[in-house]
Structure formats: C-alpha cells, structure tokens
Write a structure and sequence with these properties.
Length: 452
C-alpha cells in the first residue's frame, strides 16, 4: 500500500485491507477499486457486495461513500429489488425501462451523486441481489427509454394502483400529461390469500381472526349472526387482518372460544387493505406530527372532503376543519398511526357515529358518549348502553360494530402513490400475453420508446 503525500491511497493485494482516511477535509477524494472483476463488500451497508469502484470524500464534515459503476449494471440491482424476479419477463422488461427512464430523467439529483440507494431514488442493494431474469430484462432493453415530446419521462411507478392509477395531481398537486388515471388489473395480489373474520369476543372486544383458525358451529345468535368457534390454542386476535409484528394483538384466545362473526374480508394486501379502528387520541398523536396548523382538542370526526380524478383522497377534514399537510400523498402518514397508510385510495368509517331512529320517525346522530343511550330488547325491557362496542344491525341484516367513543376504521385499495406504472398491473398484463412496450404505453399516456 502506498500512502502518498497528497493523502491519496493506492492499494491492491490478494488479502483484505483495512483502509482508513482521516482527517477528510476540502476537496480531497479517495478511490477504491478491486483488482480485476472482483466485487467490493461494504460492511456498514449490511455486508452487501458491489460492482465498480468507490469514491470517498467529505460532505458536511462527514465521510461520503459513492459507488461508481456502468449505468446498465446499476439497473441489474434496481430491477431485481424493485420487482419480484420470478415475475414474467415482459413485466421485468417494463420495469427495466421505467427504472432507466426515471434515473436518466433525474440527472445529477444529489450533491455528489446521480442517485441514492433508497426509495428517494430507487432501491439499489448492490450485486448480491442480482438475478438472471432481471439482468436479462435489463440487457434485452439496453438503452431503451420512454419519451414524451422528445424528452425522457419521469417514469414513476408503485407497487399496486388498487384497480385505478392516480392522476399526478392526486399525489403532488402538479399535472403531468403522461401520468393520467387508467384502470389497472391489480387483483392478482390477492391470489392464494386467506380471508379473515372480524369477530366479537366474549369480553366484548373486536378484532380479526384468520378463517382457518375457526369453524362454523352451525348456530346463530338471536339476531341471525353466525357463531364461530376457535380451533387452536394461544390464537391472537389482531387489530386488522394481517400477521405482522407491527399489527397490535387485541386478545389471545384458546381453542373452543365462541366468537360472533361481524363480517369477512380478504387478508390485507396491496389490492385491498384494512387499518384500525383508531381512537381519536391515537390519530391526534400522529396527525399533529405532520399537520400545520396543529389540531387542538379531541378528535371527534374525520371525513374525506375532496377526491381526485381516480377517487383518491386529496383533502381531509378533522372536526370540520381542513387538515393542513404538505401534499395529498402526505395524508398517508398523517392518518397512519403505527405506520403510513398503504395509499390515499381509502374510506373512513366513523365507528362512533350512530344514527338513532325514534318511535316518531325522528332521528338523532350520536357521535360520542356525551349523552346516554338506552337499548330496548324484544320483551320491551330497556338498559343503558355500556361497554366499548355496540352492535348495530341494519334492515338488510348486516352487522356493524360501533364504538362508544369516537373511533375511525380506514379501508382502502392500492399500495403506494399509485401514479404511473402499477407493478402488479404490469404482472397481470404480461401474464395475459402483452409485451413490455404495450405495458409501458398503457400506463404512460402518449409516450414513445426509443434507444438513447
């Protein structure tokens, strides 16, 4: 190893070297390159291996590490991470062209590099994630980009559009001619998933249990609701229909526990999802992290007050006042207690809001616990409503779990901002026999494809 007087270093050997550079000031840079075709392992980046070389420099008093490699080789990793490598080749080709176009559109997007390795640009995890199929897709479309009026487009994409892609205005308020709503065949993400029952427990609590963990007893309540029975011990009842560490457990039950079925939904997935119900206090905590101005007082109502061309929420009112956020897509974080909402294509059910019909035909809307509510049974006996939940059946026999205090259940479709290419939609179109050119021109309106 040679350490030069100008503090640059040159090293090549058959064994690993520990390389230190300090202090790093001014415009000094260090380059590290492997001998031959070997890769470089970056320990502090999850031990990932990388093609090309590394440039070390100082930015704002901290060491900056930049991976320098041929552009097409960069795409080998991006496509392998951004789309499942087992998906049809034409879908992977569409992803390759979209990723190439997106990166070229951004140009030198950062102070010392074209891109970063996160979703701020596109996810890039180095050579260790590369796969034969994704590399084939990149090479088969080498140099091909999407153009609109002769310029490389910002080829935005997301996981699932939930059946309809978004207009650009629904995410960032600015209109883009080639980013318009189109129907998207995204339901393939539900293939093979189980359904979940939303159930009422003997304790009065409400949550979700997967369909294969219960059996139908053949019995019904006097109101006609199906009575289920759990078939396994130590079974978690979850807040929404998904098994993840981040999904709160409502209760744990044993085999033989009787449950009343409220409704049945598919497991939350990129096409259809459920979140909540959240309490007013929970939403107040997360909203005031992002809202400007902040919300004062308890939250008693949350409503979607404006929607965009595809039906996505673009404005929310809280307690009758517009929620101030930086952009429509920021609503995902502002309402995402415990994690961002999957998309802005959602409905909000105010679980504490109940319309009570009197004997004279007059109706009263009850949205909180400020006034007592009495329930009359079939024998004419009445009792004051108590407990966290109240079960309301409509004229069609559908059961609803209303909450005593203000609560908010959010259900929606899609995963991501929904603008541009839908990856699950691309999968479906490729599976139907469409090629990558058709897929790209379907999602990006008025574009042409050319080799740059």
């Amino acid at each position: 190893m040679i350490i030069r007087r100008d503090h640059t270093v040159s090293a090549a050997a058959n064994v690993s070297h520990e390389l230190y550079q300090f202090p790093v000031t001014g415009d000094m840079k260090t380059w590290i390159a492997p001998a031959g075709e070997a890769f470089i392992t970056l320990t502090e980046r999850s031990n990932r291996t990388y093609r090309g070389s590394f440039e070390l420099s100082s930015v704002n008093g901290k060491m900056a590490v930049v991976n320098e490699l041929p552009f097409e080789q960069y795409l080998y990793s991006v496509v392998a991470v951004e789309m499942y490598t087992s998906w049809p080749l034409e879908a992977l080709k569409a992803q390759a062209v979209a990723a190439r176009s997106y990166a070229l559109n951004k140009g030198y997007g950062f102070q010392i590099a074209h891109v970063v390795d996160t979703t701020l640009s596109q996810v890039y995890n180095g050579a260790s994630v590369e796969a034969r199929s994704s590399t084939e897709a990149v090479e088969a479309t080498a140099g091909v980009v999407a153009l609109h009026n002769g310029k490389v487009i910002e080829a935005i994409y997301s996981s699932s559009a939930g059946g309809m892609t978004a207009d650009a205005t629904e995410a960032w308020s600015n209109s883009v001619p080639y980013l318009q709503p189109v129907e998207s065949p995204d339901s393939i993400s539900e293939t093979g998933l189980k359904s979940w029952y939303r159930v009422a427990l003997p304790s009065g609590a409400v949550g979700y249990i997967r369909e294969d963990l219960v059996r139908d007893t053949g019995r019904k309540t006097e109101a006609g609701s199906v009575i289920l029975e759990s078939t396994t011990d130590a079974t978690n009842i979850r807040r929404h229909p998904l098994i993840q560490e981040t999904v709160p457990v409502v209760a744990q039950i044993q085999s033989g526990t009787s449950l009343i079925a409220i409704d049945k939904v598919i497991e939350s997935n990129p096409m259809n999802w459920q979140r909540g119900p959240f309490t007013g206090d929970e939403l107040l905590t997360v909203m005031n992290t992002y809202a400007n101005p902040k919300i004062t007082g308890p939250i008693t109502s949350v409503e979607v007050t404006k929607r965009g061309p595809s039906g996505r929420a673009t404005e929310i009112s809280v307690n009758g006042t517009k929620l101030g956020v930086s952009s429509p897509t920021a609503l995902r974080t502002a309402l995402g207690y415990g994690g961002s909402l999957p998309s802005t294509s959602f409905e909000v059910e105010q679980t504490g809001k109940v319309v009570v019909l009197g004997g004279s035909g007059a109706s009263v809307t009850r949205s909180d616990d400020s006034k007592k509510l009495y329930v009359m049974g079939a024998e004419g006996k009445s009792a004051a409503y108590a407990g966290d939940y109240m079960y309301v059946m409509d004229g069609e026999g559908d059961l609803r779990a209303a909450t005593r205090n203000p609560g908010f259940a959010i259900s929606g479709t899609g995963y991501g901002h929904g603008v541009g290419l839908s990856q699950y939609g691309a999968y479906s179109l490729a599976a139907q026999g469409y090629d990558y050119e058709y897929i790209l021109q379907y999602y990006y309106k008025g574009i042409t494809l050319a080799k740059e």
